[in-house]
Amino acid sequence: MYTTMASRSRLVARRSKPELVAPSRPTPHETKLLSDLDDFRNHYEYTPLVAFFRSSGSGNDVPSPPTMTIRTAIGEALVYYYPLAGRLRELPCGKLVVDCTEEGVVFVAAEADLRLADLGEPLLLPFPCSGELLVCDNARSDSLHVAVVDKPLIFMQVTEFKCGGFAIAMQGNHCVADGFGASQFMNAIADLARGEPRPLVLPVWERHLVMARAPPSVAAAYPAFKPLIDGASSNDVMLSTPLDTMVTRHFLFGRREMAALRRLLPARLGRRCTDFQLLAATLWRCRTAALPYAPHRRVHAYLPLSMHGRRWLHIPEGYYGNALAYSIADASAGDLCGGTLGQTVEQVCEARLQVTGEYVRSTVDLMASLRGRGMVFDGVYVVSDLRRLFAELDFGCGEWVVSGMAQPMLATFLVRCRNADGEDAVAASMLLPPSVMERFAEELAGLMMSSKHDNSSPRL
């Protein structure tokens, strides 16, 4: 059901010297204020994203990867997304702004010494040498003290493989864009690389839409966020164990696995919950059971939700700033693991129902009140849905294979992939200490087995 981090061959990339790519035409020199979600302290990091494409040619007809075409398209895209070519500055009050300086983003061209297929089938991220796909391996950190001021906002690398396939990696400053925004910028580059006269979706700044109210009110959001705000120190093994001593595995959920999990739910709940809620609940329950948590310990599932397409703050099309709401489920470890999967799914669904327009506005007010402070994710499990991230990219050559996070993280990311039978599936990444990983795999396998043995009626 899962694959390990191991790849068949070790990837080594020969990189060009980093260069700054500026907007291809003059752009406004101005200062732009970030929103109160943008400059939240936990966003002081560079998010490492990567997408792979196999060659669309065959035999001797292998088209060249569009490295230089992409480089040119980046310069053109920055004409529209010109704040991304600037640098962050900090105001005396601690608020971050973008100084639109036209300095540009960092770009590197690279060549890999192997074929894309040599990285394994199915290809899933991250793998041990995926850092070779990144401009720099230290552009992000799990601390809250990452330097983001006066640095390029984006680092990009295009890596060509011997087979004609390629990978495009982007390390974007989380303060200026979330995953949706990063994907929108990458799609703009792809549009221009294909020959479109301008991006098909034009960018919208409008960060004032996600600012704290006057007067603010944190009452609707504070109870859900209180454990993360008050956690001044941590005894969570997941925060005290060095990341480089943990292992990553991917657990694949295709049509059969999802059907098996739904058989464990009451019919009314199976019809109501989404695939994301079902998977988040399943992973949260099995992960908690695998960790050495005391039964009375409070644990939380932290589930980001995009505001795009919802009525909460009326985020317009083209907005590329941080626009995530957060559904937070809470339980004791004992109750979570001692109950049924249906009960866990019910908790996740109930937490989602708490995300209303007032809750979202209250969250923005709360984030603004925490300026300079970060939240502590003690006993907190983050599950993020990246199934749409970079999945529709079309540079005019190459066939999309997979995309996702290029480095291991404590959060679980759900991405699109194909299983061993070539069927569409969802891959869930999991980073755990080795012994905990074995227990997690056993918990998940036991849950799936219970579905096979109980075909009479769903569990309540």
UniProtKB/TrEMBL annotation:
Which branch of life, at top level? Eukaryota
Q: From the record, what ranges are coiled-coil? A: none
Q: Where is this region: Disordered?
A: 1-28
GO MF term list: acyltransferase activity, transferring groups other than amino-acyl groups; hydroxycinnamoyltransferase activity
Q: Which Pfam families match?
A: Transferase (PF02458)
Q: Which family does it belong to?
A: Belongs to the plant acyltransferase family.
Protein name, entry field: Os10g0106600 protein
